[in-house]
Specification:
By secondary structure, the protein is mainly alpha-helical. The protein is 33% helix and 5% strand. It has one helix and two strands. The protein has one helix at residues 4-30; strands at 76-77, 80-81. Strands 1-2 form a two-stranded antiparallel ribbon. The chain is flat, with a radius of gyration of 28 Å.
Amino acid sequence: MISDNDLYTLAVFLGCLSMLLIIVYHFLEVNAIEEDTSSTTTKFEGQSRIGKGELKGEKGPVAAAGPGQGQERGKFHGGLRA
């Protein structure tokens, strides 16, 4: 049977190995040379309309409502009167 000391050593070794592999992975991912994907096109490429005002009759990008916008004063909202 494995002793506590052996289990501790194995856990520390595997933890260090996993951290080392994470660092190596990130190093390789950051320094990877990107391939030219212009020759491979997908069927949905260039068809994204979100944020361009083409969905549901929007005129432009949707801005966040400021304080007091979007709710009228005195309306019943969420069980409390505003």
